[in-house]
Amino acid sequence: MNTIYLTAKQLRSHLKDSQIYYTYLNTPAGLLFALSTEKGIFQATFVEEKRVFPEYREIYTLNNTLILAGTEFQIKVWKALLQIPSGNTTFYAQLAHIIGYPKAYRAVANAVGDNKIAYLVPCHRVIRKAGDICGYNWGIEKKRTLLSAEKK
Asked: Is 123 tagged catalytic?
């Protein structure tokens, strides 16, 4: 997958000038609602059911590019998340070390939690150092399901 990195201000400007599209994707943990522009996906979240959004245009295939908008630090964390192979996990402290901030594991945890693109940016692959599965914006059961599906 290709990735575009923007600041929050750049994303707002891009969205103001773009047509927004939506689609639904099936994942091992359920239905994923994704928003995109012609340049790529900028948001994805798990939902319980499909709805129609008249303010957006429905499409069935998404551009294979991710648009990640955040601070320089958040982007470093999200880039590192994209490098974790499917079926593998890492710890917050390891992620902090990888991006060059070995003592910033709490800030890394916050950046992981600020990820706006569920499943496609694999924040579900980060666990506690003790090996237990911890918080996930879309629920721990979804995180367990995704990790289990990737191990198969």
From this structure: yes
What the chain holds in terms of domains, given with CATH numbers, is: 2-67 (3.30.160), 72-151 (1.10.10.10)
Per-residue pLDDT tens digits for 89-138? 999 999 999 999 999 999 999 999 999 999 999 999 999 888 889 889 99
Q: Which of 62, 68, 99, 123 is catalytic?
A: 123
Distance CA 111, CA 144 (A): 20
Angle at 23 between CA 18 and CA 28, to 5 degrees: 140
pTM, two decimals, is 0.92
The tally of CA atoms less than 13 A away on the side-chain side of residue 120 is: 28
51 φ/ψ angles, rounded to the nearest 5 degrees = -135, 165
**CA 22 to CA 94: how far, in whole Å?**
35
